[in-house]
């Protein structure tokens, strides 16, 4: 059944593969962020806070399987990890977190497939079944995390404009906050940059969700 689901998504993605133009390369850059009158953040051609996970895969022509993650406090999240991919002219990894309440996530946990797995971030990972994968495909994206492959220099960070606020994390890193864009950048002179996106209406939630450490572990 899961194979059938993936094949169906591949067929959908294949219909969109004829439009890899220079325009799309320039559009799919992490600083090309716009917002709608409704407060939806648009980046990489994805409408964060509106598009479903299935919409996102179709627009980016990428596939990933959502999975459940449980943190040390027992809180559950539903996330999908896209390994190193080329988005426009740049390579990056993506993590999409889906909008789902804890009651739905607990049901998915009860119906999980196989044993749980440990992750580098000390979270537990659970594989969800086909029925819940279908449900996940229709859930909206509330947060998108962009992990660039290469380090950014200050002149590149200036493409994002002047942040509304800066929060120091440690000696080498600080968060740059852009509430009007639904965006937070982690600029780290001693490590990798990380870019976070949400809808404008969810910006406070995005700010509260930021790790207190500079390193985000790959799922």
SSE map:
Blueprint (H helix, E strand, L loop, with lengths): L1 H13 L7 H6 L6 E2 L5 E3 L2 E3 L4 H8 L5 E5 L5 E12 L2 E9 L3 H9 L2 E6 L5 E4 L2 H8 L3 E8 L5 H4 L7 E4 L4 E6 L4 E6 L5 E5 L4 H7 L10
Antiparallel strand pairs: 1-2, 2-3, 4-5, 4-8, 5-6, 6-9, 7-8, 9-13, 10-11, 11-12, 12-13
Structure description:
- The protein contains 7 helices and 13 strands.
- By secondary structure, it is of the alpha+beta class.
- The chain has a domain at 2-149.
- The strands form 2 sheets. The protein has a 10-stranded antiparallel beta sheet, with helices on both faces. A 3-stranded antiparallel beta sheet has the order 1-2-3.
- Strand 1 (34-35) and strand 2 (41-43) form a beta hairpin.
- The model has no long low-confidence stretch (mean pLDDT 86).
């Amino acid at each position: 059944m899961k194979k059938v689901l993936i094949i169906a998504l591949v067929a959908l993605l294949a219909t969109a593969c004829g439009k890899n133009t220079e325009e799309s390369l320039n559009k799919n850059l992490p600083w090309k962020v716009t917002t709608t009158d409704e407060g939806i953040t648009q980046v990489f051609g994805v409408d964060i806070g509106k598009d479903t996970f299935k919409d996102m895969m179709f627009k980016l022509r990428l596939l990933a399987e959502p999975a459940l993650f449980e943190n040390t406090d027992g809180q559950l999240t539903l996330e999908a990890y896209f390994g190193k991919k080329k988005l426009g002219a740049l390579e990056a990894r993506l993590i999409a977190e889906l909008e789902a309440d804890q009651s739905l996530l607990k049901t998915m946990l009860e119906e999980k497939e196989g044993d749980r797995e440990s992750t580098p971030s000390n979270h537990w990972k659970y594989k969800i079944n086909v029925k819940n994968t279908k449900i996940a495909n229709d859930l909206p994206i509330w947060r998108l995390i962009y992990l660039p492959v290469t380090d950014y220099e200050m002149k590149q960070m200036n493409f994002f404009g002047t942040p509304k606020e800066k929060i120091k994390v440690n000696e080498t890193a600080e968060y740059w906050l852009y509430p009007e864009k639904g965006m937070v950048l982690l600029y780290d002179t001693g490590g990798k940059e990380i870019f976070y996106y949400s809808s404008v209406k969810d910006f406070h939630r995005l700010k509260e969700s930021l790790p207190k450490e500079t390193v985000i572990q790959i799922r």
